[in-house]
Design goal:
With 137 residues, this protein is mainly α. It is built from two helices and no strands. Helix content is 90%, strand content 0%. The longest helix is centred in the first third of the chain and has 81 residues. The protein is elongated.
Length: 137
């Protein structure tokens, strides 16, 4: 019995080392397989990108033209809001004054909506630009 315990004690570290070596070999081959799969996915993404590049460039042009047109509308709305003049404002609660205030509130809301729309377009354009940069790397 003592001989078996001695042999087990001697062989235990050797068996552990062999098990570690086998595990490392298996892990290396698994990582090579995983790398092959990753490369295959990259190739498929390249095909997808090549097929959709024209659509992305067209979307970029469309966003840029929308942004230019929206900037003109924002400029006009700001000028309309800033150049508003009320000659009789402050002389009592007149219906003209109330209507003028309501009109100014509506113009301000319109300007805020345009600014929000511009912000969304800028974000979309930035996303498209980032996508194009990643594709061209």
């Amino acid at each position: 019995m003592d001989i078996m315990i001695q042999w087990a004690t001697l062989l235990s570290p050797i068996i552990s080392v062999i098990a570690i070596i086998v595990a490392l070999c298996i892990a290396r081959s698994s990582s090579k397989d995983a790398q092959k799969q990753i490369d295959a996915i990259h190739n498929l993404l390249d095909v997808f990108i090549a097929a959709n590049n024209l659509d992305i460039v067209e979307a970029q042009r469309k966003c840029q033209s929308q942004l230019t047109e929206l900037d003109k509308r924002i400029k006009d709305a700001k000028e309309d809001l800033e150049t508003e003049h009320y000659p009789f404002f402050g002389r009592g609660a007149r219906i003209d004054d109330i209507e003028a205030i309501e009109g100014q509130i509506k113009r301000k809301e319109y300007l805020d909506a345009l600014l929000h729309q511009r912000k969304e377009l800028v974000v979309n354009l930035a996303l498209i630009d980032n996508y194009i940069k990643k594709v061209t790397k």
